[in-house]
Write a structure and sequence with these properties.
Helices cover 32% and strands 25% of the residues. Helix 9 crosses helix 11. It is globular.
Length: 790
């Protein structure tokens, strides 16, 4: 059973755990208890093997195509976590013998996974076993394991077989050719293999060490080298009450790593081996201490504190931030964030619009350096977006719906079964879900507004915004009858509506993209520099500007109906039939409606996977009146099934805006429970990274009331009734702020002094913080105080 209360004392609300073993729940815990550091991610499979397990180890960016009919995906690297432990000749296995006590916990503060088992074998002998594991945040290449085995009732023969298993696949797809294998000094194993298509060399080492009651224990292992597998087998006789300690330190390096890109394979292997020897000599305890120190620094900079009647809320935001660290490739701006991070094979490691709209905001306000890397990733993939535009007959840059290393489109063509025809469902998103192009531009612009990073805009940002605007200008088609430009045959964020014309979200965001490109052009024309003249000539921006202007003035933007102020989601949505959605709105199973209807049938019903127009109100809230927002909220929210994990966070934020505090809090809870909740099948394929980012958005942007419109910071809190206070860090224009909110007041501390004066709006009133100041504003509007801080 999933537990939230296993952290005691200082660890209260820092620990998630389980208190019983159930083989049917393996995938849930493998995902939510995953370990990682942004470079590598390791699913938390148990050391002993079970048929339903999924052992995954991924390194960011190492994409490969396994066959001609496949798309590129993150390959599953050789596994180092599996151990075969034999106790008195019997395999340790939790479906055998008797479990007398069991717990497994993930400490979110230190990143250590601990499993404790009291187990009695078939002979009746009892053993106490503790398994420990971490992926280092201090050294991105390192993984540590420690097993402590204590025979309790009698002396026991204990054997442990450990090694590196390259026989793993991605759901049957093999990505690595047979590798080079070697055992050094009977204690260190080396396994090196290259991907079959991208030719990325991955080198894995592991080192073994044994102790009995804290004293080094010598052993003469049996050595084994098999096809794609190498291992050593150690045997010990341990007295009752003694503890055998096994430590396994592993590292992973690839030829894609920036420090290795110019090295030959032999040199890469030698350097990796040398590192392992040095690191393993420190032992598990010291390496864990180093990693815990890195986590301590990380938490000191990002921790959010919630005083709530429901303690789960505090745990949920820390769980989200933990996984945001795991998913973010802070070491390299060539890589994006995958829809499942590095926690599972779902979506093949590809990046979506999730990054800009649901994940980047967290880093924008909490870790601007990481946010910059996400923008730089889109710049690295700009040429791929240009290729996609050209291949589809357009100009500029057309970003792929699913992106990997190069920016070329990598969306699969076929998906799950069609319940009506029994054949695979055609996936259209890679061809016609095109709003991601403006979403990428939106992410660039939001980064600029929040950081003022002019250098990035000059060297990368402007080019992205202008090339995406050029795409939209070429994508528009003229409708003589309406005397306007339209965007036909698309999919909006509501993926239950395929092949629609004039999707409101797509049209408005394209219009925004055109206007923003014009703003950028006009700004640079006023004070042209050398780089601007080069970019202007290379991209033919004078002609492009005139095209943007003409298209922006004449693009069709769906307007609110006179009768009820509802904006048509697309040209036909409001004419479709309505059905009773109660069954699906109250569902315990996501996408239950797909068991009753196929995609063609869903396209004829007023039902949404997620609210198109609602996302639009969140991103471009200044473009719509409160009256229009309220009318559309009342119309579309009841028709939204939240079958996308992205949906509930956006609706929670908007519910806060609409004054529906109870619904906002309820939706926040549902979003937090997508992965962390009791549904034991929700996370089989990996964590929902967009939803994880959405949890933070609910807290800080929704309840904390933070927005950054037109380059000005706004804080207009709406705390849930169940919360007494909320405190969170916030970066704005390079300065670090600490926000503390109660139902009575908002306090803002300016902790740094990058800007002499920082303007912001609190509860609807303008303020300015000079130097390192603190300001407290009454929520009731009864006044404020500003005090100078030393």
């Amino acid at each position: 059973m999933l537990r939230y209360d296993m952290g005691e004392g200082e660890l209260r609300n820092w620990v998630i755990g389980e208190d019983a073993f159930n083989v049917r729940d393996l995938a849930k815990y493998e995902t939510i208890m995953s370990l990682g550091n942004g470079y590598m991610g390791v699913r938390s499979s148990t050391e002993e093997s079970y048929p339903r397990e999924t052992r995954n180890c991924f390194v960011a960016g190492t994409f490969n195509i396994s066959g001609a009919s496949e798309v590129t995906e993150l390959p599953n690297l050789a596994d180092v976590t599996e151990l075969n432990i034999r106790l008195d000749g019997e395999d340790f296995h939790l479906e055998k013998g008797k479990i007398e006590e069991y717990s497994r916990t993930l400490n979110l503060r230190s990143g250590e996974l601990v499993r404790r088992v009291s187990w009695r074998n078939e002979r009746g002998n009892r053993f106490e076993i503790i398994f420990r594991r971490f992926v280092s945040l201090h050294n991105k290449h390192l993984l540590g394991m420690r097993v402590e085995v204590t025979p309790c009732t009698a002396a026991a023969d204990i054997s442990i077989r450990s090694g590196i298993n390259g026989q793993v696949t991605n759901s049957g797809a093999q990505h690595f050719a047979e590798g080079d294998k070697r055992i050094y000094d009977k204690t260190i194993i080396q396994y090196a293999a290259a991907t079959t298509e991208s030719n990325i060399l991955a080198v894995t080492h592991c080192h073994h060490r044994f102790l009995v009651d804290d004293s080094e224990a010598a052993a003469e292992p049996s050595l084994s080298i098999e096809r794609r597998k190498v291992s050593t087998d150690y045997r010990f006789r341990v007295d009752a009450g003694q503890t055998l300690v096994f430590e396994k330190i592993a590292n992973i390096h690839t030829s894609l790593d920036l420090e290795h890109v110019r090295k030959e394979a032999a040199e890469l292997c030698e350097d990796s081996l040398a590192e392992l020897r040095e690191e393993a000599a420190k032992g598990y305890g010291k390496l864990l201490q180093d990693s815990t120190g890195a986590w301590r620094e990380k938490w000191a900079a990002m921790d959010i504190e919630i005083e709530s009647l429901r303690e789960f809320d505090q745990l949920a935001i820390r769980f989200a931030q933990y996984h945001l660290v795991l998913m973010a490739p802070a070491h390299d701006n060539r890589f994006g964030i995958a829809a499942k991070g590095l926690t599972g094979e779902g979506y093949k490691g590809h990046s979506f619009w999730d990054t800009e709209i649901f994940i980047q905001p967290y880093f924008l306000f909490t870790d601007p350096g990481m946010a910059r890397k996400l923008v730089e990733y889109r710049y690295h993939t700009l040429d791929g977006a240009r290729r996609k535009a050209k291949e589809n007959g357009y100009r500029g840059a057309m970003y792929p719906w699913e992106s990997a290393l190069t920016g070329d489109e990598v969306t699969p063509e076929w998906g799950p079964v069609d319940v009506v025809t029994g054949t695979p469902t055609r996936i259209w998103t890679g061809l016609i879900e095109q709003h991601i192009t403006s979403d990428v531009a939106y992410g660039v612009w939001q980064y600029y507004l929040a950081t003022g990073d002019q250098h990035l805009m000059d060297t990368k940002g402007y080019e992205i915004i202008m090339e995406t605007a050029t795409f939209w200008a070429s994508r528009l088609t003229w409708n003589e009858g309406r005397t306007c430009y339209e965007i036909k045959d698309v999919i909006g964020p509501d993926e239950y509506k395929e092949h629609v014309d004039n999707n409101a979200y797509t049209n408005y965001m394209a219009h925004w993209n055109l206007l923003t490109a014009m703003t950028c052009y006009e700004k640079q024309q006023q004070d042209p520099s050398g780089w601007w003249m080069e970019l202007r000539e290379r991209l033919l921006l004078d002609n492009a500007y005139e095209d943007w202007k003409q298209k922006a003035e004449n693009i069709y933007l769906p307007r609110p109906r006179e009768t009820d102020r509802v904006i048509p989601q697309d040209d036909t949505y409001l004419d479709k039939k309505q059905i009773d959605l109660t069954k699906y709105r109250n569902q315990q199973e996501v996408a239950l409606i797909l068991k009753d209807y196929n995609m063609d049938q869903l396209s004829q019903i007023q039902v949404s996977k997620q609210g198109d127009v609602m996302v639009l109100f969140y991103l471009l809230e200044h473009c719509f009146s409160d009256e229009v927002k309220q009318a559309n909220w009342k119309y579309y929210e009841p028709k939204t099934l939240h079958d996308s994990s992205l949906s509930m966070a956006t609706h929670s934020i908007l519910a806060s805006d609409m004054g529906e505090a109870g619904l906002a809090y309820r939706l926040f809870g549902q979003a937090a429970e997508i992965d962390l909740g009791p549904n034991m099948k929700s996370s089989d394929q990996g964590i929902h990274t967009a939803s994880i980012g959405g949890i933070w958005k609910c807290v800080v942007l929704g309840f904390g009331g933070v927005r950054a419109l037109n380059g000005q910071l706004r804080i207009h809190p709406r705390l849930p009734e169940a919360w007494d206070s909320l405190s969170y860090p916030l970066y704005w224009q390079g300065d670090l702020l600490k926000i503390h909110i109660t139902h009575d007041a908002v306090k803002v501390d300016k902790l740094t002094d990058l800007n002499a004066s920082l303007r912001l709006s609190i509860a609807g009133q303008p303020y300015s913080l000079e130097s390192k100041e603190s300001i407290t504003v009454s929520q009731a509007g009864r006044g404020n105080s500003v005090e100078q801080r030393s």
